[in-house]
Specification:
Helix content: 10-25%
Strand content: 15-25%
Mean pLDDT: 87
Distance between the termini: 47 Å
CATH superfamily of the largest domain: Alkaline Phosphatase, subunit A
CATH class of the largest domain: Alpha Beta
Number of strands: 26
Shape: globular
Radius of gyration: 28 Å
Number of domains: 4
CATH architecture of the largest domain: 3-Layer(aba) Sandwich
Structural class: alpha+beta
Length: 670
């Protein structure tokens, strides 16, 4: 028996259109099973059963998707009532801006909250550690725990971690040592073996006091600047997930209550802090896709003024300057810890919620905390500027930060004395951006309100301190103001420094200056889509204006997708339904002819988007106000494209992607 059509082989399923009704003989069965696919266990009839089952599952997924809304959408009659629990309470209340002060356990988010335990990365104590005595830095083996690893003779060696651009590292020849050895390089990998092979491997980082940069100024009079960031952490989620940390911050730091994000994800919000630029004003030196060496990052200005600089980030794949970007050709700071973390990621990894929580025997977040402690305690005779950013325990799960509450609070308490003469900021870029909690009113609000606390140096100018506190407690503030404040601190350290206006927000100012009471989101460089100053009046989702606005947004999404070279791999979206909608309650009496609408919509293929649009007077046309947010996780559904900007909007146009979506919804694994 021959094949009826040569191209219909065992590798091409019979449910493909050109293979309908075709069959293979045992002789021509390329699968090697020797099974007649016409009459065997997986035969002609079985193929159609498979098609039917797949179709049924996909149909179920669409049905499930359309009925799997979170208990209270962002704007609905129920969620509005839930939000009214705190009517009359505001984080800040001015003539142009009223930001609600909600209960962290508001009933629309309470079902999504739980506590997570700290993840111990190894059942064994660490075999090696770094010990500092004066200018001496030694790598040591903890002899008391060798028996946990081997009862035989153990031998250890260490390699220097060598940077190879921003994407890779290599390691020098391993140098043997007995139980301790002096090290003169900041990043090393240690390997210990017995007769049978490797029993332990880890990486260590340490500031080498004898190798501090020559450009530094030796003085204790200038305050150091320590910036400690936790990704995706809102004010409310800090209270829920990290109560001990929050308690310490509330007691010892100043809370910027009206701090509002200015962009969607980490990069726009952090680049505004470090350069004062918006995504529209990045210029050629800070452009996405280009090396960042010539970008005017604020730490360069501190370095030029004699500060010792440092930058660390724990998740190498999604780090601020390497996600969608090539990073740096040269190390951007005196202590640049990316090589250390690249080497750590070559160790065995334990993941939780897709993050590299454990790299080898140590917790990734704890690694960053140890770097902060070492940097602060080792650089004592010169001013320092350090940015330390943590993603591994907060980026992909709204509750997992609770696992690190003890560790973070302990570090802050431990460094309290060491940081008494420093300007310290503990902050985030934005709140949690995905998942069911984000479909609630509380989730909508807190995504836009990252936490930020500031500790001023002791004996700081009392006039500036009072002005800072007044702005922190009563004014709308942004990352652009943060940037201007960092410049102001540099001016206080060196009077010859000239403060430059923020390119992204020319009207923004230092928090040591008076911020106007009537400041609006537009004044502060916040697009309307991210603005929390105005409430929203619930609108019936069946209203024509709501349906028209939603249709406009879907059209904009399709237009964005079509501009990419890989757009053919992505499905074209159609509006499935509008989940919620509201009209902005504006405080600007001079703009009564303009209506602004917030819409949350579901599409086919299944995705959830949110956008703010504007319509002026009787004009039927809409205008998009800011970015379009995608609220559901999309990693599994956009894997067919490489462009990381396109991934945010793409839904791969194929049966396997639909199947993944089905499994995700049915079994809740995503």
């Amino acid at each position: 028996m021959r094949k009826k059509i040569d191209k219909c082989t065992a590798d091409k399923p019979a449910f493909e259109p050109e293979c309908h009704g075709q069959y293979l003989s045992p002789k021509n069965d390329e699968s090697g099973t020797g099974m007649d696919l016409k009459t065997g266990a997986v035969g002609y009839f079985g193929r159609y059963v498979l098609v039917f089952c797949l179709s049924l599952v996909i149909f179920a997924s669409y049905t499930l998707f359309s009925n799997s809304a979170a208990p209270n959408y962002i704007l609905s009659e129920n969620s509005e009532r839930a939000a009214r629990i705190n009517t009359g309470r505001y984080l800040i209340k001015t003539s142009k801006c009223k930001i609600p002060d909600l209960d962290p356990y508001n009933r629309d988010v309470a079902p999504f909250v739980k506590s997570e335990p700290f993840l111990e990365c190894s059942a064994l104590p660490l075999l090696t550690y770094i010990e500092k005595t004066g200018d001496s830095v030694k790598l040591k083996v903890n002899r008391s725990v060798i028996a946990f690893y081997t009862l035989r003779k153990i031998s250890c060696c260490y390699s220097i971690i060598l940077r190879r651009g921003d994407v890779n590292v290599t390691h020098s020849k391993c140098r043997s040592f007995r139980y301790e050895t002096e090290i003169t390089e900041p990043y090393i990998r240690v390997t210990c073996s017995n007769f049978y092979g490797v029993v332990y491997r880890n990486v260590h980082a340490a500031v080498i006091p004898t190798k501090l940069p020559e450009h530094r100024i030796k003085t204790r009079k200038r305050p150091s600047m320590i910036l400690m960031g936790i990704d995706s952490m809102s004010k409310l989620n800090l209270a829920r997930a990290m109560p001990k940390t929050r308690e310490h911050l509330e007691t010892n730091y100043v809370n910027l209550k009206g701090y509002n994000k200015i962009g969607d994800n980490t990069y726009p919000n952090l680049i505004a802090v470090l350069t004062g630029r918006s995504m529209r004003t990045l210029g050629t030196n800070c452009k996405i896709g280009e090396f960042m060496d010539d970008c005017d990052l604020i730490w360069r200005r501190y370095r030029d003024n004699g500060y010792v600089t440092a930058y660390a980030e724990d998740e190498v794949d999604i780090s601020t300057f390497n996600f969608v970007k090539p990073g740096f050709i040269r190390p951007p700071t005196d202590f640049y810890y990316r090589p250390y973390f690249l080497s750590a990621h070559k160790l065995p990894i334990q993941r939780r919620y897709s993050m590299s929580v454990c790299t080898g025997p140590e917790n990734s977040g704890v690694r960053v905390l140890d770097l902060i402690s070492d940097f602060v305690k080792s650089v004592t005779d010169s001013p320092k500027f350090g940015l330390f950013w943590m993603n591994s325990f907060s980026h992909d799960n709204v509750n997992f930060a609770s696992s690190m509450d003890d560790k973070v609070s302990e570090l802050l308490i431990d460094l309290n004395e060491s940081l008494r003469d420093s300007f310290v900021v503990v902050f985030s870029d934005h709140g949690f951006r995905f998942g069911d909690i984000r479909f609630t009113y509380t989730g909508w609000l807190e995504e836009r309100l990252p936490f930020i606390y500031v500790k001023l140096p002791q004996n700081f100018d009392p006039v500036l301190s009072r002005r800072f506190a007044s702005n922190a407690f009563t004014r709308l503030t942004t990352p652009y103001d943060f940037y201007m404040t960092l410049q102001h601190m540099l001016k206080l350290s060196n009077d010859s420094y000239e403060i430059e206006a923020s390119v992204g927000c020319p009207g923004c100012r230092s928090l040591f200056e008076t911020i106007p009471e009537n400041r609006t989101c537009a004044d502060a460089g916040i697009e309307q889509h991210w603005c929390t100053c105005h409430g929203h009046t619930y609108l019936d989702t069946d209203l024509k204006v709501v349906q028209d606005a939603a249709g406009f947004v879907v059209g904009q999404i399709n237009e964005v997708v079509s501009e990419f070279n890989e757009s053919d791999s992505c499905a074209r979206y159609r509006l499935r339904s509008v989940s919620s909608a509201g009209m902005s309650q504006k405080h600007d009496e001079d703009d009564v002819g303009t209506s602004e609408y917030l819409v949350l919509l579901e599409t086919d293929p299944p995705a959830m988007f949110e956008a703010t649009v504007e319509r002026r007077g009787s004009d039927s046309r809409f205008k998009l106000l800011g970015a379009i947010s995608r609220l559901n996780r999309y990693k599994e559904y956009s894997s067919c494209v490489e462009d990381k900007l396109l991934k945010k909007y793409c839904y791969c146009n194929g049966i396997m992607t639909r199947l993944k979506s089905t499994i995700c919804k049915l079994f809740k694994y995503c």
